[in-house]
Amino acid sequence: MDVLKVSAQSNPKSVAGALAAVLREKGSAEVQAVGAGAVNQAIKAIAISRGFVAPNGINLIAIPAFAEIIIDGEQRTAIRFIVEPR
Predict the structure, then answer these.
(1) Which candidate among 2, 20, 33, 82 keeps its CA 20 to 30 Å from the CA of 69?
(2) What global pTM score does this model have?
């Protein structure tokens, strides 16, 4: 499953386009965010991508989960959204 990493500076519309492309190609994707700003941008991107794939009859769901990751040698908690069609 492809993992799209989102930061607080990510453009939600650009992330939504990438997410829609991955969903059309692979059927599901993961969106990973660390920090409140990044989670905000990730949620916006998921909402926008629902609009992109809805005309194709795809209704998206997002399942949130915690993930422990290493950034610069330091362990951090990330939020992962598993995005797939309902």
Answers:
(1) 20
(2) 0.91
